Amino acid sequence: MLVSTNLRNWGIGSEPQTMLECAAYAESANIDTLWVNERLSTPSGMGWPAEDGGRYLDCLMALTFIAARTERIKLGTGVLNVPYHLPFQLVKQVATLQDLSAGRFRFGIGVGWYETEFQVIGVPYRERGKQTNAALKLLHDAFANDNIVVNGAEFAVLPRPARPPVYVGGGSDAALQRTVNLGDGWIAAGKTPEEIAEPKARLFELADKAGKPPPSIIAMKTLPLEDINAAIEMAQAYAAVGCDEVVHAGGYPDVAAYRERVDLLAERIIPAVA
Q1: What are the two backbone dihedrals, phi and then psi, of residue 23, each rounded to the nearest 5 degrees?
Q2: How far is CA 252 from CA 12, 49, 137, 187, in A?
Q3: Within the chain, how many helices (H) and strands (E) appear?
Q4: At 48, which helix (H) or strand (E)?
């Protein structure tokens, strides 16, 4: 099972030099992927810690920044909210990042959940699933063909590197069906190993009915690294339930704390689930 971690693109830890030092250390320690997430900002009343100050870096631009200073480690969005983006422009951005990173991008997506953000960008909240499906279909079309037709106009999407893998977040039936129809894997965010078993069975059932191979499963959860034996036990439980990757997610105050995290993942968690 692969072991990855998040890189903060928000609040404390998202300063440019901090991000670069953390990314470089994770790459040197054989961490598989660095994952960032997406918020437009911190809407009033959302309850974010005051010390984070509402600072949120654009996830794709943050990964492009990191891609320029790394060589091996993979880079993922966990997750990007598809309805927040114009579909064709999003396809272009994804293709650009995949090209500039030499094929290291992993495209984790969601439909979004915070209604205030939809109000800010003027996108109907109840159409988020439909818009996400349409955008993902466009992405698949763009990476599979020399030319595509968008709103009646024919375009070529260049550069056209290999399509990055698509991972779908969310636990609803619609999200699981989206994973089968338009994704390569499922992101189980915030779920314990025990909570993954039931949706995994449903996901594999849907894939079998569609005549497709079982999607990969990525667990995103904060491992209790302060109790390393408990963290190892949890990571092994994710492997036992059939996860292909575990992503340790959470905050950290500075580079030193991030290095301590990475050391524990590299020296204790990775060998325990290899």
Answers
A1: -65, -45
A2: 8, 13, 37, 22
A3: 10, 10
A4: none
Determine contact, residues 75/135, Cβ cutoff 8 Å.
Answer: no
Helices 16-28, 59-67: crossing angle, 10 deg rounding: 60
* Domain with 238 in it: 2-273
Instruction: Give the whole-angstrom CA distance, residue 58 versus residue 84.
Output: 12
User: How many structural domains is the chain composed of?
Assistant: 1
Name the token pair of 188.
């189980």
Instruction: Kindly report the CATH number assigned to the domain that includes residue 49.
Output: 3.20.20.30
Q: How far apart are CA 18 and CA 16, in angstroms?
A: 5
- Of 162, 46, 160, nearest to 104 by C-alpha is 162
Question: Measured between alpha carbons, how far is residue 110 from residues 26, 41, 59, 88, 105 in Å?
Answer: 25, 17, 13, 17, 16
**Three-state DSSP class for residue 6:** strand
Euclidean distance between CA atoms 117 and 171, whole angstroms: 20
Instruction: Tabulate helix, strand, coil % of the chain (nearest 5).
Output: 45, 20, 35
Query: Roughly what angle, to the nearest 10 degrees, separates helices 193-209 and 173-182?
Result: 50
* Tens digits of pLDDT across the chain (274 residues): 999 999 999 999 999 999 999 999 999 999 999 999 998 876 665 555 666 667 899 999 999 999 999 999 999 999 999 999 999 999 999 999 999 999 999 999 999 998 989 998 999 999 999 999 999 999 999 999 999 999 999 989 899 999 999 999 999 999 999 999 999 999 999 999 999 999 999 999 999 999 999 999 999 999 999 999 999 999 999 999 999 999 999 999 999 999 999 999 999 999 999 9
